[in-house]
Design brief:
about 20% strand, about 290 residues, Pop1_N, Alpha-Beta Plaits, 3-stranded mixed β-sheet, 11 helices, 7-stranded antiparallel β-sheet, alpha+beta, POP1 protein, Pop1
């Protein structure tokens, strides 16, 4: 009937009003929605930039840019050969080792071999001046049972016998390599109880997502408190670790500590002949004042 037709048209108009882009992308709703969407696959900090320009894939617990949507291959190649190309490789996992240098080197020698090239004891790397790369094996099993390739950086010496080492591993290899490191250093006890919470949302944030996604009631303009209560971005742990698991372990006998620093340290790769020039123009040395 005529009345029903008019009612249908009226409902269609109401829906289109509620679908207003400005309302859907209001910041308080947008951040809550982003938190909600990272429950299974963690986003890198450059995710939004990549999501607008790349086909995204879900791998190793992360959401990563796989291939560009535009034909930018020639531009990327030109940047690599003549200028500078930047890649976000923050999805690589960082394992941190702390303890006495002699004790670290003694056990690390069991999972690599001088026959394959440099080791953790290479002088230029041990000083902290250069990054090293090598293949890891299960303890005392070389040349069998290879775990995979890693890169590593020693923190420069500060006069103490205690040193700090960062080992960067691919997320697909992290659990196996972490398990082997904990075994050779006998780091079985959690250094601190994991108090992090899983990536869950409060009832208020759940309601905000529902308001943003549904076609129901419009947000009340007089809700001033709601506008101030902007939810904080929550990224707990990383795509390779359950949020309830511990992230730091210690050996009571030697004092060696292993920590999982994944997603705590961002990492970018610069490729091209002008990479050094870009860094020198971008980074400025801090003025350190000694008292």
């Amino acid at each position: 009937s005529k009345t029903q037709a008019e009612k249908a048209v009226h409902q269609k108009k109401e829906q289109s009003k509620n679908k207003c882009r400005k309302a859907r992308r209001r910041h308080i709703n947008l951040v809550a929605e982003f938190n909600h969407r990272q429950r299974k696959n963690i986003w890198l900090e450059t995710h939004i930039w990549h999501a607008k320009r790349f086909h995204m894939v879900k791998k190793w617990g992360y959401c990563l840019g796989n291939s560009p949507t535009e034909k930018s291959y020639r531009a990327c190649y030109r940047a690599m050969t003549k200028h500078c190309l930047l890649q976000d490789i923050s999805y690589y996992c960082c394992l941190e080792l702390k303890g006495k240098e002699d004790e670290l080197l003694k056990q690390l020698a069991r999972i690599c071999s001088i026959d394959t090239g440099l080791t953790f004891q290479e002088a230029s790397c041990l000083s902290g001046r250069f990054e090293g790369s090598l293949n890891l094996y299960r303890a005392d099993r070389y040349p069998e049972d290879m775990l995979g390739p890693v890169t590593f950086i020693w923190k420069p010496r500060d006069g103490s016998e205690n040193r700090q080492l960062w080992i960067w591993v691919h997320p697909a290899l992290k659990q196996d390599i972490l398990r082997e490191l904990k075994a050779i250093f006998q780091c079985s006890e959690p250094e601190e109880i994991c108090i992090t919470e899983p990536v869950t949302m409060s009832i208020q944030e759940e309601e905000q997502v529902e308001v943003a996604m549904s076609l129901g009631n419009k947000r009340k303009k007089e809700d001033k408190e709601g506008e101030k209560a902007v939810p904080v971005k929550k990224i707990i742990g990383d795509g390779t670790r359950d949020p309830f698991q511990s992230y730091s372990w210690i050996a009571r006998t030697t004092g060696i500590a292993i920590s999982d620093r994944s997603m705590e340290i961002l990492r970018y790769r610069l490729i091209g002949p002008l990479s050094h020039s870009v860094l020198t123009e971008t980074l400025k040395a801090a003025s350190v004042q000694t008292v």
